[in-house]
Amino acid sequence: MDKILDALRAIVGDAHVLTGGDLSAWELDWRKRARGKALAVVRPADTAQVAAVVRACAAAGVPMVPQGGNTGLVGGSTPDASGRQVVLSLQRMNAVRAIDSANLTMTVEAGCILQTLQETAEKAGFLFPLSLAAEGSCTIGGNLGSNAGGTQVVRYGNARDLCLGLEVVTAQGEVWEGLSGLRKDNTGYDLRDLFIGSEGTLGIITAATMKLYPQPAAQLTAWAAVPSMEDAVTLLGLAHRHLGAGLTGFEVMGQFALSLVAKHFPQQRIPFTNNASAQGRPKPDAAPSGGSEPHEVGSVGAYFVLLENSDHESESHAREQFERLLETAMEEGCVTDAVVAENLQQAHQLWHVRESIPLAQAEEGLNIKHDISVPVSLIPEFVRVTDQLLETAIPGVRLVNFGHLGDGNLHYNVQAPAEGDAAAFLREQEENVNGLVYDSVQAFGGSISAEHGVGSLKLDKLEKHKSPVALGLMRAIKRGLDPENLMNPGRVLRI
Q1: Nearest residue to 137 via CA among 161, 111, 159, 160
Q2: With CB atoms 3.0 to 4.6 Å apart as the test, which of 110, 127, 206, 256 could cross-link to 213 if both were Cys?
Q3: What is the DSSP letter of 16?
Q4: Rounded to two decimals, what is the model's pTM?
Q5: What is the Cα gyration radius of the chain?
């Protein structure tokens, strides 16, 4: 092992081959559920160094674990416990290489922080729409490796849909230069889509050309209370008809999920709950007050929806569209209360409530997380059936249901009974709960991983819930591109 370490130091420099001290930033996953032991953490500065590192590791038969911001939720970017794997961190490769205003593209290195992409695009007068809770620390390489989703998939799609080209180091240490940014290139297999979502098991993404969009003239946020999940789906249909492409966000949150936010973050004001503002309740078409609190209408529902309307005409046009939508929804009975943020600060406050749900869950105790997708039309029945299965199997179980209803993705999480031991619940019930939820997902034609990936956490579950034909095709691709199984082994597929 000294020989390979010396070779790596010769490539990237002594300071960037880490073998001692506290390496938990690279060896411990974000959820603190997977801790490994790396042979070394190697931090290359450019693509040429990545390629040289890969060639050196391949020659020595040393497995590699590509890593971006290490914010993944499925144990896909931390080393195993063998002490033989090299963590290849892309964090030093964080440059924005170019912005092509006419082509509406930005070319960036894989270690570029997502928030940096957003801010750089905004300064140039454009929108980069990928947005998720970890955007201050996750990297675009990791986003592409896991095909990240986020809050605006309903309009702009996943990371895959935002990418026009890649630069990739193969398992043999060759560099595929595919950063052209072409929107039309019908010259064979789509290699780009092979690497996106492969979680570093086929090659290492070192740079990407991403789509940019014009900045909207206005962006408004609304919060609505709905009596049921069926009503939330009805509201989604109305929103599509009234807002069209302007609908850029549609999030659903269950009452219990929001009660955890109210419990653990009482300083946050949640509309239509006891800790909300007691301000009066004008109708949605009332004139804006310009005050510090949003307007509210009506009474409480079983679920709450957060909607975003991005308009390319004007704020008044966007507000008029929202008001018509909410009036129609209230007339049809699928919305009982609604609030439209009057300014950017209020909009941020509403989104902050939504983003605080996972943090509130963590404060409540260890829980069993699911990132699942089901056809939107079937979500109400899926929730009804699966809730009943879990409540029958585990009396007192608490269900934290929230997520991106606009694209059919729910974070259908399971919390221990109120008086139970959360750690014991996780240890004793996780396998049973996962079995019930994933079997139900499959019965409804869904996916056991909507946006978080497979990693090591769902490796065995994929074997059960993916078709044998699909698994066979995936293994053939893996063997063809990485025959020695040195690229992030033990993730996504068993080889």
Answers
A1: 111
A2: 127
A3: G
A4: 0.89
A5: 23
